Amino acid sequence: MAKMWAGLTSGETSKIADDFNSSISFDARMYEQDIKGSMAHAAMLAAREIISREDADQIISGLEGILTDLREGTLPVDPEAEDIHMFVEQVLTERIGDAGKKLHTARSRNDQVALDLRMYLRDETDRILPKIRKLGRSICTLASSHMETILPGYTHLQRAQPVTFAHHLLAYAMMLTRDLDRLQDCRRRMNLSPIGSCALAGTTYDTDRRMEAGALGFDGITLNSMDGVSDRDFCVELMSALSILMMHLSRFSEEIILWSSWEFRFIELSPDYTTGSSIMPQKKNSDMAELVRGKTGRVYGDLMALLTTLKGLPLAYNKDMQEDKEAVFDAVDTVKMCLDVFDGMVSTMNVRADHMKEAAGKGFINATDLADYLVRKGLPFRDAYKISGRIVRDCMEQNLVLETFPLDSYRSYSDLFEQDIYEAVDLKNCVEKRISEGGPSKASAEQQLSYASRFFTE
Known about the structure:
Layout: H1 15-21, H2 24-27, H3 31-47, H4 53-72, H5 84-96, H6 109-144, E1 150-155, E2 158-164, H7 165-190, E3 192-193, H8 209-215, E4 220-221, H9 225-230, H10 233-259, E5 267-268, H11 287-310, H12 324-348, E6 350-351, H13 353-360, H14 367-376, H15 381-398, H16 407-411, H17 421-424, H18 427-432, H19 442-455
Helix pairs in contact: 3-4, 3-6, 3-8, 4-5, 6-7, 6-12, 6-19, 7-10, 7-19, 10-11, 10-12, 11-12, 14-15
């Protein structure tokens, strides 16, 4: 099939080369951005009297018709077309004749594809942001119901100190606030128009790049034409932000998987977000959380694939850069799907506060509070630490906990111990006494909730 770029050559390529070169199978999703960009380009060409107003009106009307037909499915995308840009231009020329051939004046596919991709990823970022906010709201809603639900906090997967479930959840809410900030910052740098950079060296026509950029909702233009067509930082930055977001979802997934196991039983996932076993009738598998954890590696791979593609490319445009789209499209699609399923999973989970409290009571997670009690009585911390460790050892040997260790036994270690030791090691008091900003006390958690919630409003 002869190509629209035929001239120096016949434009005839082998079928295997056509298939290898074609990007229509994945870049067709950018048809709206491509058509809107072309409409703005035609309007600019007419405004600068590079083409006539009549030709521009005919082009814009023709493009509107193509956009409508593609949206309604009455115009199938030709799989034999080289890419979405050539497909749209070819259909336009078939429909309106020679005027359609004037559309590509003062632009190249190099800046055209860079424009389409920026517009598409800008739109996709605007779809991802509310999904993050929705998940953040679900986390905050769950946290608000568990301000006094005590569970053990862990380090090294060993029970460490008492916290509340709200405090634990709000750690993930804070992660999502940073994810929002990163994506919004990325969108800001993404929102510069490359159109008018042409192949790499601009154009001899007296164009108005800023008019075209403004019509398409950009904040400005790229300031170097070679950079305009060869830059894919905005893709890498977006995929990096999405990878960090997926890391956060994966860490939360890991805890959901642990918490829903029989060994923990801190939560029960809704049947809507679990599966069963083909041979073990007792199984209730947290497959959605496991898939999110698994798909994190997929998004990481997309990022690494593009970084590897770009690392050795000379300026300006090279065909290698066609590899940007499948990677970034896959990362975007994966993240959107994971956010949707994660929100449903979190908002429908059943919290077993009784099991959390039971676990908190068995791990000597108030041992630090025991040491702090002695410090407040005047004992140096390192001495208090050693005494507390010996008391924990005695409790373990006698199958006791700090709350049931006899006062006489306490006093055998130090006459600083008095009856108020039991108030000091009470788990609820241990949490409430952690008054430092950012800690698990109810007052602190309420401040954290208020802060995070502001990020998640629409």
